[in-house]
Amino acid sequence: MSTPTSGGELGRRLSGAVVLFHQALAERAGLSAGDLKTLQLIESEGPLSATELARETGLTAAGVTSVIARLSAGGHIVRETDAADRRRAVIRAVAQHDSPLDAEFGRLGGALGGVISGYAPAEQAAIVDYLERMIEVLRTETRRLSAG
After folding, report:
1. What is the pLDDT of residues 18-35, one digit of tens each?
2. Domain that holds residue 67
3. How far apart are the C-alpha atoms of 107 and 75, rounded to whole Å?
4. Structural domain contains residue 141
């Protein structure tokens, strides 16, 4: 493996590896990569309204409606009335214990934990900080691309 010469090159390689992993995982779960990532967004940030989900994913209203229908048909999400505002509907992920997704993400998490454990605590903190900042940059750039 060659050493990347720029942050852009490293970013492309990392992005490609992440996308291909998620595509393979989504196929194993019977989902598209986009549906899998939307489900994960609902799991981590939800419950969300369809409008909030559209804003976070950059999908159109029709696109969000289609994703919600597919995820609902697969038993991955449910639509509920918001407890705080009974006029509002929200989408919530359904907990699926022992799912292939949980097992594979557990396996990946273990492997990544093994990588980071080889660093000193201060280095680990720097890596985590870097990754958190990178996530925020990616979310900002996704919103920018979706708005334009």
Report:
1. 889 989 988 888 899 889
2. 7-96
3. 23
4. no
